[in-house]
Design goal:
The chain is of the alpha/beta class. The chain has helices at 13-24, 82-102, 123-136, 160-172, 188-199, 211-217, and strands at 4-8, 30-35, 46-50, 67-70, 107-111, 143-147, 151-152, 186-187, 206-210. The strands form 2 sheets. It has a 7-stranded parallel sheet with strand order 3-2-1-4-5-6-9, with helices on both faces. α3 links the parallel β5 and β6. The chain is globular and about 45 Å long.
Length: 218
């Protein structure tokens, strides 16, 4: 039986790594990416659908298959308007989850963040927590939530602060032991591989994967 995967956010750090894995692995016969503009990639398994995330309902029929991977996310630098920021990190992932449930998508995989907590006083971690909570309320058959720490890997855009932090974490990571292991930096490739591996399993429940556990799944 053929299997189809859907990725939202395939141009980002985790999403681009995940796309490469899904195209290379034989598990999926078709990979649909939901994009604002087409990616410069050609592959016999790849289908690109240019969408307006403000009007996802127009693309309802396309949201079907084995797994939907939501790798959407922004930063305050890229999206200083907090309302727009919330749309990308909260509203769109929730809307996609609603369509996935409506159309019988078997699995939903969400990239969240370490520290996600709807009761947090921090805008970012509160927003991530609310996204997790709101998607869990939908009652999806199989939901995987990944909470990575600082991501490392080659980005298309320059982020000086994250580059500096990645350098510092190479020194700090070995010192983070016990309960602090979850704060170690993690390669985006590792997160993507863990997402793929989990999608090949036939388990129905809600799974929340903290950063240090993600490494064990890759």
């Amino acid at each position: 039986m053929s299997k189809k995967a859907i990725i939202a956010g395939a141009s980002g750090l985790i999403g681009s790594n995940l796309l490469n894995i899904l195209l290379q692995q034989a598990f999926y016969d078709k990979v649909l990416v939901l994009v604002r503009k087409e990616l410069p990639i050609m592959h016999h398994k790849l289908v690109q659908l240019v969408v307006d995330f403000e009007a996802l309902e127009k693309h309802t029929k396309a949201i079907n298959g084995h797994a939907l991977f939501c790798c959407l996310g922004s930063t305050k630098k890229k999206t200083p308007d907090l309302k727009e920021y919330r749309k990308i990190d909260h509203d769109y992932p929730v809307a996609l989850a609603q369509l996935a449930r409506q159309n019988g998508v078997e699995q939903y995989h969400l990239v969240s963040s370490i520290g996600a907590d709807s009761k947090s006083s921090n805008f970012y971690t509160q927003m991530k927590g609310e996204t997790e909570d709101d998607i869990q309320k939908l009652g999806l058959k199989c939901l995987h939530i990944y909470e990575p720490s600082l991501l490392t890997g080659e980005r298309k855009e320059s982020r000086v602060l994250e580059y500096v932090m990645a350098g510092l974490m190479k020194v700090i990571d070995p010192l983070l032991m016990g309960g602090l292991k979850k704060y170690r930096s993690i390669p985006a490739q590792t997160v993507a591989l863990a997402m793929f591996n989990e999608s090949t399993k036939n388990e129905d429940s809600v799974f929340i994967h903290p950063s240090h556990k993600i490494k064990e799944l890759a």
